[in-house]
Design goal:
Blueprint (H helix, E strand, L loop, with lengths): L5 H12 L71 H6 L1 H5 L5 H11 L3 H15 L13 H12 L11 H16 L8 E8 L2 E8 H18 L15 H11 L9 H17 L8 E3 L4 E3 H23 L8 H24 L15 E10 L4 E6 L6 E14 H8 L11 E4 L1 H12 L5
Parallel strand pairs: 5-7
Antiparallel strand pairs: 1-2, 3-4, 5-6, 7-8
Amino acid sequence: MNGGGREGDRRDDEVRGARRIPGPRGAVDDLDLEAMEHPALPPPGGSTPDEAVPEQGAPEPDGDLAPEADAVDEPEPAMTSAATPVLSHQVLKALLGAWALSACSAEETAAVEDHLTGCAPCADEALRLRDAVGLLHTDGSLDLDPTLRTRVMDGCLGRRPARIPVPDWATPYDAETARLDALLRDIGDSEWHAPVRLQWFEDERPATRRTTVAGVIGHLMAVDGLVSAALGLDDPLGRVEMPLSPARRTETYWAATRPPATRAVREPWRDLTHELIRTASLAGRNVAERSVSYGDFALPLQDALLDRAFECWVHGTDIAEAVDYPYQPPSAAHLHRMIDLAARLLPAALAGRRSAGLAGPAKELVTPGEPGRSVHLEVEGHGGGDWYIPLDSPAAVGSPRRAVAQVALDGVEFCRLVAGRIPPVEAAAGQEGDREAIRDVLFASASLSRL
C-alpha cells in the first residue's frame, strides 16, 4: 500500500528532481566529428540578432545613474582557463583511474594534474594507480624466471639451513624435475595425449619416434629406474627383471602400457624423483661415486643425476613445444655443468667411433695423462666456457698448446646437438683449423644422444 498514492507521488517527484547520472562519454577517436552538428557562429565582427550590445560609455559626472545601476551587482564569475574546467574534488577523484590509464580528455587531464599539485591524498592515490597500470602491460612474459625457485630456496636455507641438505651435484636434477612438474600441472587432461616427436642421432643419421606427453613421462620414469636400482630402491617398472639399456627399458614400458598412459603417470614419476633426491641426500658423501649402469656404459651417480637433469630439460622442451607452452633453458650454472659432462664424455665417444670406423685414425698417441692433440670447444652465451677435447686417446689430456682446431657454438645449441635435435653439419657457429678434427668432434657430440 502507498497511502492513497501520496507517498508514491512524493518519491516520484524526488526521483524526477534528482541529478541524472550522465551516460559514458565516448572516446574522441570514436566520434564522427564531420557528421556532428555544430552551433551556428556569429559573423566576424558582429553579434547575434537577438543579442543586445550594451553601451560602453561612462555616465555623466553630475547626471543620475542609469536604471540598471539601481540593481544589485552580481559577483563576477571566477576566471578560469578554457583548457582547465572547474570540477569538484569528488569528480576529480573519480577521474584518477582514467587519468592513470591515459584515458582522460586533454581538458580533464589538465584539471586532474592541477588538482594533484594541491591535494596530497589524491596525489598518493594517483601514484598507486600509475604503479598498478604497469602490471596491466602484456608485453612482458608472465612466466616465472627459471632461477626463481633456486633463489627462494637459497634465501630460505640461508636463514634456516637444512639439517640434511641436498648435495650440490643433485641440485640440477632437483631443479629440472621441479620445472617439468610445474609444466605438467598446468596442462589439461586432453594435452596429455598430444603427439610428441622424440629425436636422436643414430647410425650417422637422425632417428625419430612418436609418442605422447604421457609416453614421454613414462620414458623418463623407466630410465630413472636405472638410478633407483643403483641406490637399492624398487624398480618403478616392477620386480620383473628388465633390460639395462634405456631404449629397451622404454620400449618394454610402452609395450606394457595398454591403453596408453594418461596424466596418472605424473604422480609415480614425481614420487620417484623425490625418493631419488631424498636417498642421495641421506646416503652421505661416498654415494656420489656409486656406479650407475646404462648397459653399454656406466656413470658415477653424480654424473648420472646430471644426465637425468639434462634429459628432463630436453624432454620438457619437447612437451612444451607439443602443447605450445613457454619453457626456458636451465640456469647458467646448471647448464654449464651439463655442457661439462658432455665435454668429458666426448673422448670416449671419439674412441668408440674410431673403433667402428666412423672417425679418422689416431695421429699422435701419447702416454696416458700427457697433453695430446686437441680441439678447442668454445661454448658461447648461456652457461658457456672453454673445453679442450683430446682427439687421439681418451686417456690423453686436452691442451691449449696442442690445439689443432677451434669450433664455436652457442651453449643451448651445443646441448641441442648433444640431444640429437640438430644435424652436426649445421651446429657450429664458427670453425677454424683441422676440418677432419672438427667433424669428428661434432659427430661424436651428436652420437651422445639416445632415445
